[in-house]
Amino acid sequence: MPDLAACREPLQALIGQLQTRIEAHNAMCCINTLIVKIKFADFTQTTVECGGSALVAESFFGLLTQGFAREGRPLRLLGIGVRLVPDTLMQKVDFQLGLFNDSAPV
Q1: What predicted TM-score, i.e. pTM, was given to this entire model?
Q2: I need a labelling partner for 4 at 20 to 30 A (CA). Which of 11, 44, 48, 53 fits?
């Protein structure tokens, strides 16, 4: 992805995938932080995060914009994620979210 504008469509797809995973685990109510991780073409990387409880595209794009401004180089990899509130998670869900698409309790 050569520039920030080219990231909008892939970012939207990542948000959709993340939302599907979180909904599959009934964890939407547990989100408290939004995260964007960027690896640039020269393999430097940065992480930007902010408080938030909804998977809003503009929030993630704002974080991406902040991270991109740190280096201003073409992107190699882009990742997004969330942090969950542990206490709320333990009350609502009795298993850990899996790294992959499996939904088996751990």
Answers
A1: 0.77
A2: 53
Cβ atoms of 2 and 68 closer than 8 Å: no
Q: Is the pLDDT of residue 10 over 90?
A: yes
Euclidean distance between the first and the last CA atom of the chain, given in angstroms as a whole number? 36
Q: Which structure tokens are listed for 26?
A: 């009934």
Question: Any idea what DSSP says for residue 9?
Answer: H
- Burial class for 38, CB neighbours closer than 10 Å (0-12, 13-18, 19+): buried
Q: Which two tokens stand for residue 49?
A: 């995060």
Number of H helices, E strands in the chain: 3, 3
8 A C-beta contact, residue 74 and residue 2: yes
Pair of tokens at residue 75: 């992107």
pLDDT tens digits for range 34-77: 999 999 999 999 999 999 989 999 999 999 999 999 988 899 99
Q: How many other C-beta atoms are found inside a 10 Å radius of the C-beta of residue 96? A: 11
